[in-house]
Design goal:
By secondary structure, the protein is an alpha/beta fold. The chain has 9 helices and 5 strands; from the N terminus they run βαβαααβααβααβα. The protein is globular and about 70 Å long. The two termini are 24 Å apart. The structure holds 3'-fluoro-3'-deoxythymidine monophosphate and magnesium ion.
């Protein structure tokens, strides 16, 4: 059997440098003559992606469960092409994946209840959707061979020129999202399916680029192992 391409996912908070690094990695792979392709989720170009785009820009409202399932469906609709590309030897770089799906949805909390007598204890916000529920629609997706998590403290990310106007681009949301990403990473590492690497996204662009290349380089010769399934 000829070798297949590697499936590489880049994850991180908003303004962690994800998209810049994904593009740089694509260029570095192409310069090294490795057949490669960059994809991104959400893919806003499909009919499902257009619903997601309108929700993110707050032009429409959707039930939290419904939008979560649309994000997942937006991945499933690309699965046949991901598998075909990998099998034909193309390395795929993927800017956000199912991990963002869980992290952002499981971070949604109910607004704190107004209490008549203020408690001296900080009230823990209650999640709207459980971690397990958020994970289930993405079970069996192609598993990344490598996930690079660009870690950055939300306060540092914010200082990089501010968040945009989209839903979720707020510091308190990003803080909860980061906690969920850390949990996902621990689970992926202990599952033995794919490697999860935490990189300091707060470093200079060139330093991050170099650490990414150090992780990706061993995969550029192609893989003989079959594509695995996520959380199966
Ligand atoms: N996002 C992204 C989700 O909430 N669920 C998902 O499954 C994915 C892939 O969409 F705030 C969120 C993360 C981010 C927003 O992402 C748009 P981009 O990378 O800024 O387009
Ligand atoms: Mg964004």
């Amino acid at each position: 059997m000829s070798k297949r391409g590697a499936f590489i996912v880049i994850e991180g908070l908003d303004r962690s440098g994800k998209s810049t690094q994904a593009e740089t990695l694509l260029k570095n792979l192409q310069d090294a003559k490795i057949p490669s392709k960059l994809i991104k989720f959400p893919d806003r170009s499909t009919p499902i992606g257009k619903l997601i785009d309108s929700y993110l820009r707050s032009e429409s409202e959707l039930d939290d469960h419904a939008i979560h399932l649309l994000f997942s469906a937006n991945r499933w609709e690309v699965v046949p092409s991901i598998i075909k590309d990998l099998e034909q030897g193309t390395t795929i770089i993927c800017d956000r994946y199912a991990f963002s799906g869980i992290a952002f949805s499981a971070s949604k909390v109910h607004p704190p209840a107004k209490s008549a007598s203020p408690s001296t204890f900080p009230i823990q916000p209650t999640p709207k959707l459980s971690y397990e529920w958020c994970r289930s629609p993405d079970i069996s997706l192609p598993a990344p061979d490598l996930t690079l998590f660009l870690d950055i403290l939300p306060e540092k990310a914010k200082a990089r020129g501010g968040y945009g106007e989209e839903r979720y681009e707020k510091e308190d949301v990003q803080e909860r999202v980061r906690e969920v990403f850390i949990r996902i990473g621990e689970e992926i590492e202990s599952s033995g399916v794919g490697k999860w690497v935490v990189l300091d996204g707060g470093l200079e662009k060139e330093e991050v680029e170099k650490s990414i290349w150090d992780e990706v380089n061993p995969l550029t010769a192609g893989l003989k192992t079959p594509i695995q399934k996520l959380w199966d």
